[in-house]
Amino acid sequence: MPEAERDLIADWMRENPAKGLNEATGYFEGRFSYGALRMVQAWVKREAAEA
Questions:
Q1: What are the backbone angles phi and psi of residue 17, rounded to the nearest 5°?
Q2: Where in the chain are the domains?
Q3: Most exposed among 12, 16, 20, 50, judged by the fewest C-beta atoms under 10 Å?
Q4: Who contacts 36 (Cβ-Cβ below 8 Å, separation ≥6)?
Q5: What is the pLDDT of residues 1-51, one digit of tens each?
């Protein structure tokens, strides 16, 4: 996944921590697969745990 796409998704997830993958899919209008969203979600959670 390109870094720009990852950062776009990650920024949205950080700004909307209470929203899930369904909301993310709707926000991005299906541009990204659930697998891609899950991958970034896990990355964001790991990043937060390390902070």
A1: -65, -25
A2: 3-50
A3: 50
A4: 1, 5, 9
A5: 999 999 999 999 999 999 999 999 999 999 999 999 999 999 999 999 998
Tokens of 21: 């993958």
Amino acid at 27: Y
- Tell me how far apart the alpha carbons of residues 27 and 13 are, in angstroms, rounded to a whole number: 11
Sign of the Cα pseudo-torsion (25, 31, 36, 40, in order): negative
Reading the block at residue 30, the tokens are: 């299906």
Q: Which amino acid is at 25?
A: T
Quick one: CA dihedral 18, 35, 2, 46, positive or negative? Answer: positive
